[in-house]
Design a protein that fits this description.
There is one protein chain. The protein is of the alpha/beta class. The protein has two domains: about 80 residues, Non-ribosomal Peptide Synthetase Peptidyl Carrier Protein, Chain A (Orthogonal Bundle), CATH 1.10.1200; about 250 residues, 3-Layer(aba) Sandwich (Rossmann fold). A seven-stranded mixed sheet has the order 1-3-2-4-5-6-7, with helices on both faces.
Length: about 350
C-alpha cells in the first residue's frame, strides 16, 4: 500500500514516528537516539524485540513478526512497515538478513520457536558478499484445521524463496529442529531435478524416531511424556528470556512464554511424524559436544541417510551455548564449513 503524498501523507507518518519513538524510549530505557540508529546496537535483545512487537500491535493495530527488525531495524524504516501493515496481518516467510552480495546465498531455517532472529548475529561474518536470508515459521493450522506435515511446510518455504530468483543454488542451513525442514526442502528440490549447494545442520535433532530434541537433564530425544517436554520447554524459554541466552526467544511475561511453548509443541508434533530419507550432495553438521558424541554412535539413525562425504564440525559444550556471545561459535564453524566446501 503506497503512503499518501504531500501533507496528507506526512501527517500519519509523523504521528506514527512520534509514538514509535516513545515506545522505543520506554523499552530501551533511553532518552535520546537517532531515527536511523539500529535497535540491537542501542541495546535491544530478542526479549525487547518481542515486547516492541506487542506494543506496536496495541498502539497501531498492526501485527508484525519480530523478524521485521532484520530488515527495518530503526525508527525511520519501521515506520514505513507499520504504515504498510495497517489493516493487514500477513507476515512474510522469507526475511532478508543481508540481501546484498554475489556469492552463494545462505538461507537459514528456524528451530522449534519459529523465529530467525539468531541470523542477525551472522551478518558480515560469513565472508564478504554473502547474501543471508531467513525462513520464519508458518506453523498455524491451515484452513480446515488439518495438521500440517514437514513436506507441506518445506513446499511452502521453497515457494517463498522463489522470489529470490538466485543465479546459483542456495545453501540451506537449519537451526536445531529446522534441520529436518531444510533436509526435506533439499529432497524436494532434488526430486524436481534441482539441487542445493549444500545443507548445513546446526545442532540437529539426534534420534529421528519420533522424539525431537530432549530435556537437558536426560538423554537426547528422551522426553518421557508430552508434559515432560512442555515443562522442559517452559523452563528453557523462561530462563533464556531472562538471560537472553537463546536469540530465538520470545516475549515478556507468562502469557508470552505459554504461547511460545504451544508453538514449540505444535511444531515438535509435526516434526515427530517426519522420517527423513537419504540425501546426496554436500552436507555438514555443526554440533555441540553431546550431539557430536551421539552422532558418532554406530546405531545413530543419521548414519543411514547421511552421504559418506558429510562433514562434522564440533562447536561448544551445549545447545544454548551456540549463539551466546553474538553467535561467535556458530559463525566461526559456518565460515570454516563454507571454506572447506569451496562455497
Amino acid at each position: 500500500m503506497a503512503p499518501p503524498s504531500g501533507r496528507e501523507g506526512l501527517r500519519p507518518r509523523v504521528a506514527v514516528a512520534s509514538r514509535l519513538q516513545e515506545i522505543w524510549k520506554e523499552i530501551l530505557d533511553l532518552e535520546t537516539f537517532g531515527p536511523r540508529d539500529d535497535f540491537f546496537e542501542l541495546g535491544g535483545d530478542s526479549l525487547a524485540a518481542a515486547t516492541l512487537m506487542v506494543e506496536i500491535e496495541l498502539a497501531f493495530g498492526v501485527k508484525l513478526p519480530m523478524s521485521i527488525l532484520l530488515e527495518a531495524p530503526n525508527v525511520a524504516t519501521l515506520v514505513d512497515r507499520i504504515l504498510d501493515g495497517i489493516g493487514r496481518t500477513e507476515s512474510r516467510i522469507l526475511v532478508p538478513v543481508e540481501p546484498a552480495g554475489d556469492r552463494t546465498p545462505i538461507i537459514f531455517v528456524h528451530g522449534l520457536h519459529g523465529q530467525v532472529l539468531f541470523a542477525r548475529h551472522l551478518r558480515g561474518r560469513l565472508g564478504e558478499g554473502r547474501p543471508i536470508f531467513g525462513l520464519q515459521g508458518r506453523i498455524a493450522p491451515p484452513p480446515g484445521g488439518d495438521a500440517e506435515s514437514v513436506p507441506e511446510i518445506a513446499a511452502d518455504y521453497l515457494a517463498a524463496i522463489q522470489e529470490l530468483r538466485p543465479e546459483r543454488a542456495p545453501i540451506l542451513a537449519g537451526y536445531c529442529a529446522g534441520t529436518l525442514i531444510a533436509w526435506e526442502m533439499a529432497r524436494q528440490l532434488a526430486a524436481s531435478g534441482q539441487a542445493v549447494a549444500a545443507l548445513i545442520g546446526i545442532d540437529p535433532p539426534i534420534t529421528l524416531e519420533g522424539d525431537i530434541g530432549g530435556p537437558s537433564g536426560a538423554p537426547e530425544g528422551d522426553y518421557g511424556s508430552p508434559e515432560a517436554f512442555r515443562d522442559e520447554a517452559r523452563s528453557i524459554i523462561a530462563g533464556s528470556a531472562e538471560r537472553n541466552a537463546d536469540p530465538t526467544i520470545i516475549g515478556r511475561g507468562e502469557d508470552a512464554v505459554e504461547r511460545a511453548v504451544d508453538r514449540a509443541e505444535r511444531l515438535r508434533m509435526i516434526l515427530n511424524r517426519y522420517r527423513p530419507g537419504p540425501l546426496e550432495g554436500k552436507v555438514a553438521f555443526i554440533c555441540s559436544a553431546p550431539r557430536v558424541r551421539r552422532l558418532k554412535e554406530p546405531a545413530n539413525p543419521w548414519r543411514n541417510i547421511l552421504p559418506r562425504s558429510s562433514r562434522l564440525y564440533p562447536a561448544g559444550e551445549g545447545h544454548l551455548e551456540l549463539f551466546r556471545d553474538r553467535g561467535k561459535l556458530v559463525a566461526q564453524a559456518i565460515a570454516r564449513c563454507l571454506k572447506d566446501l569451496a562455497l
